[in-house]
Amino acid sequence: MDIAKQFDTLWYQGASLAAVALITGAALAVAYQSAAPRIAEAQMRKTQAALAEVLPQGSFDNDLMADTVTIKDAAGREVTVYRARKAGAVTGVVFGMENKGYSGTIKLVMGVDLDGRLTGVRVTGHTETPGLGDKIELAKTPWVLGFNGKSLDDPAPALWAVKKDGGVFDQFAGATITPRAVVGAVKRGLELYTGNREAMIAAGAPRS
């Protein structure tokens, strides 16, 4: 039998491709499994940093990642609430919100103290237009710091909008949809806190 001709047959080519795909898939699976713990650890550190960034310095001494409660928002979606404690007493909470922006979903975390005032807001993910919508990032502009100290009643609910819509928050030239989405998400977050305050700050024991 001519070995060279055998290599040219369709069945051999198909079998070769299948073998290569199988080996490649197995190699990728092994690589992912070995990297998974490091990926999970990096993600946890990133989450911890984001949570701490929206809380006043020195306002907590507990492990935020281990002190959580789950509630449901108006749409029935589960929201994980991280509780900040100082000497065992709850001092505030942090949770995530999201809203549809110009080119995709904008995700953020927000800290709220016991009086319902914002201690910080940070955008954690988005696909908005570089140079325009990305001004919601603190690394680009200080715009997001404008939420600090605000509450659902300060400004009044009707003023929780960008200035173009009659509110008090600045919009960006050429990119009104993006800040509008962030303002809307933060307002809904404050409404969520107001409606679920007791459940969020209930003095339960942290997860072990």
From TrEMBL:
Its main location: membrane. Keywords: Cell inner membrane, Cell membrane, Electron transport, Flavoprotein, FMN, Membrane, Phosphoprotein, Translocase, Transmembrane, Transmembrane helix, Transport. Pfam families: FMN_bind. The keyword Lyase does not apply. GO terms for molecular function: electron transfer activity; FMN binding. Its cofactor is FMN. It is a single-pass membrane protein. The chain crosses the membrane at residues 12-35. The modification FMN phosphoryl threonine is found at residue 176. Residues 101-193 form the FMN-binding domain. The complex is composed of six subunits: RnfA, RnfB, RnfC, RnfD, RnfE and RnfG. Part of a membrane-bound complex that couples electron transfer with translocation of ions across the membrane. This is Ion-translocating oxidoreductase complex subunit G. It comes from Azoarcus sp. (strain BH72). The lineage of its organism: Bacteria, Pseudomonadati, Pseudomonadota, Betaproteobacteria, Rhodocyclales. The gene is rnfG1.
